[in-house]
C-alpha cells in the first residue's frame, strides 16, 4: 500500500511541482512569441522547466529538440516523485508503460511514412534502461519484422504480431487501438491491485475519462473528416473498451450516426456536452481535455492518497506539454494567437 510516511511525503512534493505550472498569462505570452527559439528561451528561464532545459542554445533550439526536452521534463517529474517508496512493479509503473506505447507508435508511424531513420534523432535517452525493450533496437528497425524482433519476449509482441504480419495490410489505427488498450488495461489493473475501493474510484476516473475522451475524439474525427470511409462496425473496432460516463451502447449509437449533425443530437441528448463540450460549436476534444485538466487539478489539491496525486500531477504535466507543443506548432506556422488559444487544454 502507498500510505507509508515516505509515500505521504509525495503529496506536498507533487503540489509543489504543480505550483509552478504555466499560468494563463504565461501561455498568452508564449503565444505571442515570434519563433521557436524565443519560446525555448522563455521556458529555459521558467522555474518549472529550468532544470530540464538548462544548457540549450537559445538561438539554435530546434522544434523537435525542444519537444524532446519537454518530454524529458515530465520524466524528471516522475523520477522526483517515484523515489517516495514506489518500487519496481508498483502503481507508478503505469507511466513507463505509457512511454513504451508512445515510442512504439512513433516508430510505427515513421516506418509507415517511409522515414524510419528519423527515430534515432529523437530517441529519448532518458528512457534508456527503463523500457522493457531496447530503444536502440527500435531505432534500427527498418521493417515491421524488425519492430517485432525489437519487442520479442515482451507483451507488445503478442499485441503487434497479428497486426504487422502483412505489411500490405498495415493499419496504424488498429495498432494504436491495441497499444493504447493495453496501456489502459495495465493501468487499471495496477489501480485495482494497489488501492482500496474508496481510493481507487478517484484514480480510475482519471484513466477512464482520458480513454473516453480518446473514443469521443475518434468518433468525431471520422464523422468530420472521413464520413464515408468507415462503417459503424469499423468505428466501434477502433474504440477502447473503457468508459467513464458514456456507456458502450451510447458510443455505439454515436458510431452509427450519419454525419456530425446526427452525432451532435445523440451526444447532446444525453447531456455529455455539459462536461465534454458541444460538437456543434467547437471540436469537443479541447473542451473534454479542459474538463479532465480541472478534474485532475481538483484531485491534486484535495486528495490525501499519494498514488492518486501521482497520477493527477503526471496527467497535468502531459496536458501542459501538449499545450506547449500546440503553441510551438502554432507559432512556427504563423497562426494568430486567438486561433491557438482555442486549442489549448487547461
Structure commentary:
GO terms for molecular function: proton-transporting ATPase activity, rotational mechanism. InterPro entries: ATPase_csu/dsu_sf (IPR036079), ATPase_V0-cplx_csu/dsu (IPR002843), V-type_ATPase_csu/dsu_dom_3 (IPR044911). Keywords: Ion transport, Transport. This protein has helices spanning 5-8, 10-18, 24-31, 36-44, 50-53, 63-82, 94-112, 135-140, 144-150, 155-164, 172-194, 197-225, 232-238, 248-256, 260-269, 273-276, 284-302, 306-332, 337-341. By secondary structure, it is mainly α. It has a domain at 196-304: V-type ATP synthase subunit C fold (Up-down Bundle). α6 packs antiparallel against α18, α7 runs antiparallel to α11 and α10 (155-164) packs antiparallel against α11. The two termini are 31 Å apart. The model has no long low-confidence stretch (mean pLDDT 89).
What fold name stands as the CATH topology of the domain at 196-304? V-type ATP synthase subunit C fold
| Cα-atom radius of gyration | 20 Å
Question: Helicity range of the residues?
Answer: 55-70%
Proportion of residues in extended strands: under 5%
Poorly predicted spans:
none
First-residue to last-residue Cα separation: 31 Å
The tally of beta strands, per DSSP, is 0
Largest sheet: none
- Number of helices, counting only DSSP H or I runs of 4 residues or more: 19
Level-1 CATH class name of the domain at 196-304? Mainly Alpha
Assigned CATH architecture of the domain at 196-304: Up-down Bundle
**In terms of structural class, how would the helical and strand content be classed?**
mainly alpha
Name the average pLDDT. Answer: 89
Please state the overall shape, judged from the principal axes of the Cα atoms: globular
